[in-house]
């Protein structure tokens, strides 16, 4: 029996559903914070309501501190991320295309990959002459492993029949890499780039909480130490917006640069 064809929802309805889901979350937050809900292991006694968070956000946006914090975090993330993209994609192609490179490079990468970002902070402070470089290094480490592993997965799983067909037609190594391997591995690479961007923000916030003086992570941690609970949530929301805003261009560019890939229609 043939599966019935599902008609995708109009874009307006989809955006309305997404907006309502956010409003529902804010409403539950408002109820839990104003009633000081106690759910046993979770309590909302010290959680500020959305109104206080909005007031703190307005105060921050009117302050010159916001530009300093955001610019510092953006610089650290993108400096580390760009370095991770260049090195990660090169390593991923080498490991995915060469058995010798895989035997030589993959074992140490797999050994270092499970180490959390917090564990790298003391060593990075010892290695680098400034805290700024150490924080950039933390974002680099966070983005490197997702990019490498997804690139390896994409390159290693290229259809061998396509490679053989290209060789039979006289294509050289560079042409095969450019015309066959890269297009086939591109979806996995883009996925790794998007994951790496999100991981960079996670690692940056951890580093800024410990050794930063400016940045959204430092702002969030400072709010906690000063018991400005509304500012904590403001910092968290800004981090989420910056992370989402950084990942969205990557996925959008990936769809535009890969017209041969048929996207799944959201239902």
Automatic annotation (TrEMBL):
Record membrane topology: Multi-pass membrane protein
Residue stretches spanning the membrane: 74-96, 134-152, 201-220, 232-251
Major site of localization recorded for this protein: membrane
Start and end residues of each ABC transmembrane type-1 domain: 70-250
GO terms, biological process: alkanesulfonate transmembrane transport
Pfam families in alphabetical order: BPD_transp_1
GO cellular component, as recorded: plasma membrane
Subcellular location: Cell membrane
Keywords: Cell membrane, Membrane, Transmembrane, Transmembrane helix, Transport
PANTHER family recorded: ABC TRANSPORTER PERMEASE PROTEIN MJ0413-RELATED, ALKANE SULFONATE ABC TRANSPORTER-RELATED, MEMBRANE SUBUNIT
Function: Probably part of an ABC transporter complex. Probably responsible for the translocation of the substrate across the membrane.
Family as reported in the entry's similarity comment: Belongs to the binding-protein-dependent transport system permease family.
Protein name, as recorded: ABC transporter permease
